[in-house]
Amino acid sequence: MSDDKPVTATAVALINPNTSQATTEMMATIARRTLRPDDGYEVLGLTVAEGPAMLLDEVALRAAEPQVVRAAQRALAGPDGPRIGAFVVGAFGDPGVEELRSRTSLPVVGIAEAALAEAASSGRRFGIATTTPGLTAAIAARVAHLGWSGQYTGIRLTQGDPRQLSAAPEELTERLAEAVEACRAQDGAEAVIIGGGPLGEAAESLRDRFPIPVIGPIPAACRVVRAVVEVT
After folding, report:
1. Tell me, what DSSP letter sits at residue 189?
2. In this structure, is the dihedral angle defined by the CA atoms of residues 55, 116, 190 and 203, taken in order, positive or negative?
3. In a 3-state reduction of DSSP, which class is residue 213?
4. What is the spatial distance between Cα 13 and Cα 141, in angstroms, rounded to a whole number?
5. What pLDDT digit, counting tens, does each position of 1-15 carry?
6. Cβ(119)–Cβ(143) under 8 Å?
7. What letter does residue 39 receive in the DSSP assignment?
8. φ and ψ at 89, to 5 degrees?
9. 8 in helix, strand or coil?
10. Distances (CA, A) of 23 to 33, 54, 164, 190, 198
11. Do the beta carbons of residue 216 and residue 207 sit within 8 Å?
């Protein structure tokens, strides 16, 4: 480690807005590939206390908002609280991001907003490939709220029940690959986001399979964290 890197690790709290501990561990593992310990970061995976194991519709997404805020508050009050330098909210609808920002001066990064900004950079047209039809409207609303509708080519959904796909990683990856190809070939997308924190490993697998960027939202959020933390 070079002399200009921090001696004390900056803790980044990654909040999983659903109650699957396995999903929390998976997302934290992906985050650590960008926020590396050797670079002075420690990723803390936090799981909300209540709610479904997978966010499948707008009702669940809204219900996750206060749970995200409470998880952050518990973390700040705990023994790691003084070391926390940023929060990442690990659901693609960014539940609780704005509310959490109103309650802390620490950086708060939503994985959707980070991925959307990266996909839309340089004026690129982008699409989203995901598994959850119940969140299509919420995703479009998030795109519009952040000002990217003019570059948005639309959403492509996998076939099959999202919960069954999540239990079959290889099939999940192939169904998402089909959705990415539809975004590219049929919609004219110049970049495609894999729309979901729990889809993180599939996003990693698809990153180099296409002639256009395939963006995983967890690494995108971690790159934003690095950019913010390392200039302060």
Report:
1. -
2. negative
3. coil
4. 26
5. 344 544 478 999 999
6. no
7. G
8. -100, 115
9. coil
10. 16, 9, 15, 29, 6
11. yes
Global model pTM greater than 0.85: yes
Tokens 């519009």: give the residue: 144
Q: Are strands 41-47 and 10-16 parallel, antiparallel or unpaired?
A: parallel
Pairing assessment for the beta strands 108-110 and 84-89 based on DSSP bridges? parallel
Paired strand residues for 110: 89
* Whole-angstrom distance, CA of residue 162 vs CA of residue 232: 40
Residue 92 to residue 110: CA distance in whole angstroms: 8
Residue that the structure tokens 């909040």 belong to:
15
How far from each other are the two terminal CA atoms of the chain, in whole angstroms? Answer: 19
Cβ–Cβ < 8 Å for 19, 92: no
Within 10 Å of residue 5's Cβ, how many Cβ atoms?
Answer: 12
Of all helices (H) and strands (E), which one includes residue 166? helix 162-166
How many angstroms separate the Cα of 2 from the Cα of each of 7, 45, 166? 10, 27, 40
CA distances from residue 226 to 22, 126, 163 in whole angstroms, order as listed = 25, 24, 32
Structure tokens at 182: 């539809």
Q: Which residues pair with 45 in a beta bridge?
A: 14
Alpha-carbon distance of 20 to 162, in angstroms, equals: 14
Contacts of 191 (CB under 8 A, 6+ apart): 118, 119, 120, 124, 125, 126, 127, 212, 213, 214, 215
User: What Å distances lie between residue 60 and 14, 18, 27, 32, 68, CA to CA?
Assistant: 19, 9, 19, 27, 12
pLDDT value for 101: 97
Output the pLDDT for position 232: 67
